[in-house]
Design goal:
It is built from eleven helices and no strands. With 191 residues, the protein is mostly helical.
Length: 191
């Protein structure tokens, strides 16, 4: 609705195209008719035309300027690097990891550095507070007498179990109740 009431706003968008010489002939007549009747649009068109004329003739006005040979060499080198084939497949994973690091880690490098410092501190605390006395006792101590007897009983059970011709019925499980010391001493003397 605003566009229909403001005819100058509708034509001002086309004035830039007219000043640059890019307005089609069908629309040119209506814009030129509006320029003859509207002083504000004529002033705007003159300002735009004063800017576009030097830009349209830039080749003539800047023809004497040549780039330096060092600049030409740098442009040639940059162009060759840009047209160089993509990295070999063996480096593709490494390049993608580096690109990911550049995109994800580098912008937040202080946060990631803080995380790394915290992880190292936790690792150092865990390593320094580890109780090595228990592992040394386990390595240097001899097995108890009950442990040795249990191993010997299991070997005898396996030997009896693997004998040919014997029924394969498992013996009932032994009760895990502690035996009094008097019976333990008797067992030692009987053995």
């Amino acid at each position: 609705m605003r566009r229909f009431l403001n005819d100058c706003g509708h034509h001002r968008a086309r004035l830039c195209h007219l000043a640059g010489g890019a307005l089609p002939d069908q629309e040119r007549a209506s814009v030129e008719n509006h320029l003859t009747t509207c002083a504000g649009c004529r002033k705007y068109y003159d300002e735009i035309k004063s800017l576009t004329v030097p830009l349209a003739n830039w080749e003539k006005s800047l023809s004497h300027i040549e780039p330096a040979t060092a600049l030409k060499a740098r442009w040639e080198k940059d162009f060759q690097e840009a047209t160089r084939p993509v990295h070999p497949a063996r480096f593709a994973l490494l390049i993608s990891i580096l690109d990911w690091c550049h995109d994800m880690i580098w912008p937040c490098r202080r946060i990631w550095t803080g995380f790394a410092a915290i992880w190292l501190a936790i690792f150092a605390i865990n390593f320094s507070t580890r109780d090595t006395s228990q592992t040394l006792v386990m390595k240097s101590s001899r097995p108890s007498l009950e442990m040795v007897r249990a191993c010997l009983d299991s070997e005898g059970f396996l030997a009896d179990w693997t004998k040919p011709g014997k029924s394969r019925v498992a013996p009932p499980p032994k009760q895990a109740l502690p035996t009094p010391r008097s019976q333990q001493r008797l067992r030692i003397f009987r053995a």
